[in-house]
Each structure stands twice: as C-alpha cells, then as structure tokens.
Write a structure and sequence with these properties.
This protein is an all-alpha fold. Helices cover 47% and strands 0% of the residues. The protein is built from eleven helices and no strands. The radius of gyration is 28 Å and the shape is globular.
Length: 245
C-alpha cells in the first residue's frame, strides 16, 4: 500500500512539473512579438516580397527585365536603381515602393535592395573595352530615321513592320507599348532580353553595334507606334527618347 501511494505521488509530481513546463513555454511563446515589417533588413526577403514577381526569383527576368544582368547594371547606376525603386515609373507596371511615394518600404529598405542588387549581380569589368550607349538618351530621337534603323537592326526578328517575325513576337503591339516607357524601350534595345534570346545592342547585326543615336531613333519610332486614345496617360513626351519619365 505504501508503495502504491509513493508511486501515485511520483506520478502526480511529474504531471505537475510537465504542466508547469507547458504553461511556461506557452507564456514564453506569447511574449515573442511578430517582426515589424519596417524592421526587415534582409535583402533576400525584401527582394522576394517586392521584386521577384516581375523580375524573377533570382533576378533573371520575368514580366520585366532581368536585374541580374551585368550589362543593365553597367549602364544603370545606383541613383537610377534607387529612383526607379522609390518612385516607380508612372503609367507602367512598375509601382513606387517607398513610403514617401505611397509604397510600403522605408528609405533604409530601398537602400538594402539597391545595395543587394549591385553586390550580388553586377560585374564591374563586364563591359571593359565596349562602348555601350548611355542609359539615358543624350539627344532626341527621330522617328523617321528610326524606321530605317529598325529595318536594319530589328526587322529580321520582329518582322518588316514590327508585328512579329520568325524569331520574335510583335514589338509594336498596342498593349505592350502602353505598358512600357520610352526608357524601358531604350533599356531593352541596349541590354536585350537574354532570358528571351534577344541580343544586346551589339548582336543584332554581327560586327555592327548600334550607336547611342541609333538607339534613340529606333525608340522614337517605336514610341510613335503607340495607339493613342482619349483618357490614356501617355508616357511619351517632348523629352529626348529614353530619358526617365
């Protein structure tokens, strides 16, 4: 009988100890507050939550251009990356991400994204010796000249009128042109879309890279193909083709 009471006492004590541990653990867990979104400072998390949907999970491109492209990062400096991430591009699918512009990210988080893109994916000497056209157009483009530039450099893939050819789809599609800025067009002409097989400014005609002015001219021609209708906020203006809007 004494043995039974002793066994009962031991079991009761164990139950009490286990109950205390469970309660203590529960209280401890409840005290862990969720992380404030403004406190997130990890590049991978910020990129995955804000950029990967359009630019690809590894920066390799998707609905929008690849950010893990050393040519793009060679012509677009940190001020460009910061401005576009902060303010977005009006009239396109690129939204403003900074709180100061109506987005959800702090200035510090914008800095983390810009720094992370540069540190992970840029190759400083990638274009060593290459005379790449500048990111922004130094002078206005001419649409009539751009038509001839298009024929020389682009028509073999996109067709004689830009409506699609044997190697690439339409480049004058109204929906596409309504979603991209002149700067987007200039960037794609210079950088290409390697994930889609589109060459950069050097590869359209072997041994004959496009000049900055030819890029501006073909962008002006493409911009002239936009369908204009009442109420549409156009992103083409009197500024030189390729300047940020």
């Amino acid at each position: 009988m004494n043995l039974c009471w002793r066994l009962f006492g031991v079991l009761a004590l164990l139950a009490l100890v286990c109950s205390g541990c469970s309660t203590s653990g529960g209280r401890h867990g409840a005290e862990i507050a969720p992380l404030d979104p403004d406190e997130i400072s990890d590049f991978s998390t910020l990129y995955a939550q804000n950029c990967a949907g359009c630019h690809g999970p590894n920066g390799m491109g998707g609905a929008s251009i690849a950010l893990a492209d050393p040519i793009y990062l060679a012509i677009a400096d940190d001020s460009v990356l910061r401005r576009v991430t902060t303010e977005g591009v009006a009239g396109t699918q690129m939204p403003a991400f900074a709180k100061s512009a109506g987005g959800m990210l702090t200035d510090q988080q914008i800095d983390v994204i810009v720094r992370g893109i540069r540190e992970r994916w840029s190759k400083p000497d990638f274009l060593s010796g290459a005379n790449a056209p500048p990111y922004s157009a130094p002078s206005p483009g001419d649409a009539s000249t751009g038509s001839r530039v298009y024929t020389a450099y682009c028509s073999s893939c996109h067709g004689p009128s830009g409506n699609g050819g044997p190697k690439a789809s339409s480049i004058v599609d109204g929906s596409y042109l309504a979603l991209v800025s002149d700067q987007d067009l200039r960037t794609v002409v210079i950088v290409g879309r390697p994930e889609l097989g589109a060459p950069d400014w050097r590869g359209n005609v072997p041994g004959k890279p496009m000049s900055s002015q030819e890029v501006s001219d073909v962008v002006a021609w493409l911009a002239s193909q936009r369908t204009k209708f009442s109420g549409q906020p156009h992103i083409h203006s009197d500024k030189p083709a390729g300047e940020p809007r």
